[in-house]
Amino acid sequence: MAIPPFIIQFHQRTPSVKVTNGFVIFDLTQYKTLHTMNKKSVACLLLVGATLVLLSCQPKQEPVANEPAASVDPLPSWNDGANKQAIINFVTAATTEGGTEFIPVADRIATFDNDGTLWSEQPIYFQFFFAIDRVKALAADHPEWKTKQPFKAVLENNMEELMKQGEKGLVQIVMTTHAGSTTDEFEEIVEQWISTAKHPTKNKLYTELVFQPMLELIDYLKANSFKVFIVSGGGIEFMRPWTERVYGIPKDQVIGSSIKTHYDYNDGKPFIKRLAEIEFIDDKEGKPVGINQYIGRKPVFTCGNSDGDLQMLRWADANPLKSFKLYVHHTDSVREWAYDRNSHIGTFDKGLDEAVEKKWTIVDMATDWKVIYPVEKQ
Amino acid sequence: MAIPPFIIQFHQRTPSVKVTNGFVIFDLTQYKTLHTMNKKSVACLLLVGATLVLLSCQPKQEPVANEPAASVDPLPSWNDGANKQAIINFVTAATTEGGTEFIPVADRIATFDNDGTLWSEQPIYFQFFFAIDRVKALAADHPEWKTKQPFKAVLENNMEELMKQGEKGLVQIVMTTHAGSTTDEFEEIVEQWISTAKHPTKNKLYTELVFQPMLELIDYLKANSFKVFIVSGGGIEFMRPWTERVYGIPKDQVIGSSIKTHYDYNDGKPFIKRLAEIEFIDDKEGKPVGINQYIGRKPVFTCGNSDGDLQMLRWADANPLKSFKLYVHHTDSVREWAYDRNSHIGTFDKGLDEAVEKKWTIVDMATDWKVIYPVEKQ
């Protein structure tokens, strides 16, 4: 049965309809409920339903032999090739009821690393730019910082000196800039920063430096009833204010590193204070632990880009259900950055070896992706 | 427009259709995707859509004046009255687009306590029966327990002696029975127990002692695009194996107390070991902290039954969006149990006072609920 073209356009980002065994399946997973659809869309949906039912009630037309399902490309920014095909094959098999590789909806858990997997992470994790900007914003209230390391180095833009301060200095900067506020206040601070601050060399908002092909992959998985989570070494409360808007991933599906918090209740106003003490590092061994704690299920689909994600990929690999493990390999020094084994940010060494050995999918940014950032898209 | 009766029956538990401004809205929130519906249901849905569209295209019949929307009772086990009406009014206002109390879908977060709110908790939290049964099951490997407290008291069914062991004894029992296994093993142990163990006086499976009216409330909220979470003092990994089946709440929407875990990787097989150390107590002040950590949003709808839930209700009350706070008051000594201010389990004292003062909804089990347990339902 041919699909009227307006159905294909019904959903703006990914195809909202597929034909299986002669039944038309509307994909409504992007709508938490039809209540949220506007009336025109609902009317349109019903009209489509009506039309198709009427068509199917008509005397059979000459059969169309083996016409493929509505052939909208779910991953338009991916070049055709083995990697793109592997993704599509996996999702198709996972959603084919009665097939040997069918995955029940409840088990369709997908976990994505963030830094280097969903957005860039060079020359340093973007959250660190946030911390630097916070030090500068708070400096007026801390005149002593002018002479006190590691703050002095930050205020003087002396990165070399800052690096000499080592891990202790970095932790000090993160704690000073991430703790002390209430959770509500911190959310506002992050929102304000993320909507205005720009990347030092790309001169774009950080949220413009997300990877278009990965946005499409997230949408494609969601459209096939995968529940998509972020599992990042970045701060959970640094990500949540904008992940919903940028990735379409709700706050409660974001897992990250966290600092301790404390609930207090004064004068009938409850609040949660952010304390200067690390609670959980969601990196390396922390990733399976975080996945177990927040999700309670091993993923069937997981994406990372560095050795810090290896344990997460192994955790998905240990799923008794067939799982898909994907590594993004930063190979594009022109459009993004090229780095792997010897990079301090996003080291990709053991993970690369294990991915090759176990035949996991390794995405070559330079050849697999038509565009990197959304702005490059036509 | 009259709704053909078969639509009403289309969805077995809650109404799947409502009519707003002449548009028919199918409620598909219970289906993560239409892919999971069987073909007959899809065909039926399309047929309904077609029928209604055709009906709406027909020349207008004589108008039906002010006919109410499809009047299927979303809460059939609730007696009519102020409390039931308050719930329905809140949900209707929250989902009425353009209304002053409309709540965007992303903000429709509902949090439910478990013990005493979704299932019974007398004569002692059900998880403690699990711990006792585990001590007995493990006793063969621990001959020393015959003479060593608190295990001796458990093996001799001497509750009085067991209580004398105090908190230290209880923690020892919980740690002995809840730690030491891998997360996969523990899930199997819980699943095995919950499908066979019976309540000592009710002589029913514990999962049969869930509250039918609350199941309907969960379904009603889900049908209106609320994302429903459990936020319980009970163990997170004790609940997750069965909450999906019993409440329709997925594992990643269950928050509870937890013990520390450790990821390990031997011979290419990753696993997570459960350690004998408490990580987080999801009770009292812990509930807002847990909600912030796992969800990242204040709830707009929350239900509890004891002082341990008061901080959660206050947290919802602090939501800038209008929120609904509900306390279940155990007033039914015949069908369930009656207890409040002086009970050791589920103490409801400060919470009761504050709920009265702030005009939160206090459900009177004896008068508000037609039935308590699903088995009583016709």
- What is the SS-derived class of chain A? alpha/beta
What would you report as the Rg of chain A, rounded to the nearest angstrom? 23 Å
In which order are the strands of the major sheet of chain A placed? 6-5-4-3-7-8-9
Order of helices and strands of chain A: HEEHHEHHHHHHEHEEHEHEHEH
Helix content of chain A: 25-40%
Number of helices of chain A: 14
Largest interface: A-B, 66 and 67 residues
- Low-confidence segments of chain A, ≥5 residues, pLDDT <50? 1-68
Described by the principal axes of the CA atoms, the overall outline of chain A is globular
Mean pLDDT of chain A: 86
Number of strands of chain A: 9
CA distance, first residue to last residue of chain A: 31 Å
Main sheet overview of chain A: 7 strands, mixed
Multimeric status of the protein: homodimer
Beta content of chain A comes to 15-25%
Question: What are the salient characteristics of this protein?
Answer:
homodimer, 378 residues, two-stranded antiparallel ribbon
Descriptive report:
The structure is a homodimer of 378-residue chains. Helix content of chain A is 37%, strand content 16%. The first copy, chain A, is of the alpha/beta class. In chain A, helix 4 crosses helix 7 and helix 8 packs across helix 10. Chain A starts with a helix and ends in a 10-residue tail after the last helix. The relative contact order of chain A is 0.13. Chains A and B meet through strand 2, helix 2, helix 10, strand 5 and strand 6 of A and strand 2, helix 2, helix 10, strand 5 and strand 6 of B.
